[in-house]
Structures are given as structure tokens and as C-alpha cells.
Amino acid sequence: MAVPMAFMSAVWPSERNDWTWKIPRKLEKRGKETNQDQLDFSLVQCQALVLAPTRELAQQIEKVMRALGDYLGVKVHACVGGTSVREDQRILQAGVHVVVGTPGRVFDMLRRQSLRSDSIKMFVLDGADEMLSRGFKDQIYDIFQLLPQKIQVGVFSATLPPEALEITRKFMSKPVRILVKRDELTLEGIKQFYVNVEKEEWKLETLCDLYETLAITQSVIFVNTRRKVDWLTDKMRSRDHTVSATHGDMDQNTRDIIMREFRSGSSSVLITTDLLARGIDQVSLVINFDLPTQPENYLHRIGRSGRFGRKGVAINFVTRDDERMLFDIQKFYNVVVEEFPSNDADLL
């Protein structure tokens, strides 16, 4: 059984701008005791393992790590479902320093011994709450069992549900928690509005009116179910709006193509559910066609806009049934979401 040495909790860890190849200063002393604070670039074996809840997020982390480690000669590989098992095996056997992946494929590679755990000294769970909510608990536990005894662990989670706390109790010794205060969960730089929609069935007309009125570059529309993604996509296309859509029922190749088109700008509107929009940075507008079911997910969603100093706008469609959730969101983040103005030409 692995005996991790530390626990870290943070918000949006995969999008922090202070990533280094070392652990946080608070944990530096512990790492040095076992030479766990950095990678040994001369040893071309997996020394850091990162798990993410979705293929898209895993591939985004891989891309960032490749860029950061380029001049150090860091070899990074993403092991995700929907890709060639043989290709994964070939790359892993050739040797990499860091493996990023989804729990299912990573466990499969460990089980086949294509991914050797002997040299792994850092293990990161990014989006732990989302992984647990998606039913990866058993696979995460199975992976833990295959890791070395002494290992540095980082658990990054926007929330701390009982399942995440259970991981700390079961697998961690004297964990260190780094918690972000709620008042530091910033929505700074994002203009937030709500639009009162009297009936659920009137949301579509409201959405079409917005797109006819605003000069929109890149935007993401969030809904709460995969079925609604398909429904809204069909409705928008039938009204001659060019939109893309992605959700978990689509095969990986299709999702990759859609996300690539959106990132390149050849598609400017993406309809999706919460998880699959990770790794999108160039959005100017986020529309919550459906409000999230939990206040914590509001930050995940509208954090797509206004990033890296750009101006961002979030518009929330609110029916009478949504009023309580909007109130909870404002209270949770200590913000005021204003009613959408009638003169909206200069918003974007």
C-alpha cells in the first residue's frame, strides 16, 4: 500500500500560473528527506503520475507540462481511453518522466506492467471530487495499491466531499491541507448578469435573441444533461446558428475534432456539460442556459471567460425555479449578479 506524505487542496490547480517541477515550499522539507521534490531527468522512467477526470483535461495537462518541461527534456505522455493501447505501450516502454491520464487507462497500463511504478515518487489527483463523482473511486484505490510505499501525493479538489476526505484518511499519513478561503475564490474580471425567463421553454428564444444582438467571438453554452446538449444543438442549427457540441456519449475521436475546431476558432459556439469544457481559455462569453446544480460548479463554468486579463461576460438564464440557486451562488461567492441591461451593445 502506498503511504503518501502530504495532501493538498486547491481550486483549479491545473490552471495555476505558478506550476514548477517542485512541490510547494511548505512541503519542501518532507520531499528532500526522500529526494521527492523534483524529477531526475537522467532517469527516463515514470517518476510522476497525474490522474484527471476527463480525457480532455488529461490532454490539456500533458500539453502544459510539455511546454513547461521543453528545455529540460521532460518526456510526458497522456494515457487516456479511446486511443491506441499498443501506442501507449510502445511509448511507455520507450520511457517517459511523467504520465498524465484517466483512471481507467492508467490502471490498465499498470496492470499490464506497461507502466512500471517502481520509480514513481509523485502522484497527483487533479479534480478529485469530479473523479469520485464519476465513479472512479475503486480504480483510484486500485492504482494506490500499485504505487511504491514512499510517495508524495497531491490531491486537488474544488470541493471536499466525504469521499475525498475518505481518501485522506485511508491512504495518507499526517496530511497537510492547503485550503483556499471562500472569499479568495475570485470571479474578478468577469461581468455577471442574469436574464429572467418566465418559462423553461422560452429559453431558446432568449438565447437566439442574444446571438442576434451581441457581437460574440468565442462562447460556451452550458446545460445540465447530455440529452439537452443534443436537443439544444439541433434547435440552434435549425435556426441557422453554427454551433458545435460535445458530451461524454460521443466517441473520443469526435470529441477531439470538435474541441480542436473550437480552440482554433473555426467553430465559435460550443454547447456542453460541465466537465468537458476544461482547458478552454479563449472564451469571451459563457451562457448558463441551465444554472449549475451546485454553487461550486459556477466558478468552474464562468471561469472559462475573462481569463489572462481578457474581458469576460457570464449570462445566466433564470426561471422562477432557479431563483434560489442564483441566491445561493451570490451568497457563496459574495457577489452581486446584476440583471442583464437593455443596452448591451458594449458588453463584449
UniProtKB/TrEMBL annotation:
EC number assigned by the record: 3.6.4.13
Pfam families: DEAD, Helicase_C
Domain Helicase C-terminal: 189-348
Domain of life: Eukaryota
Catalytic activity: ATP + H2O = ADP + phosphate + H(+)
GO molecular function: ATP binding; hydrolase activity; RNA binding; RNA helicase activity
Residue span, Helicase ATP-binding domain: 45-178
SMART domains xref list: DEXDc, HELICc
InterPro entries: DEAD/DEAH_box_helicase_dom, Helicase_ATP-bd, Helicase_C-like, P-loop_NTPase
Keywords: ATP-binding, Helicase, Hydrolase, Nucleotide-binding, RNA-binding
Designated name of the protein: RNA helicase
Native source organism of the sequence: Raphanus sativus (Radish)
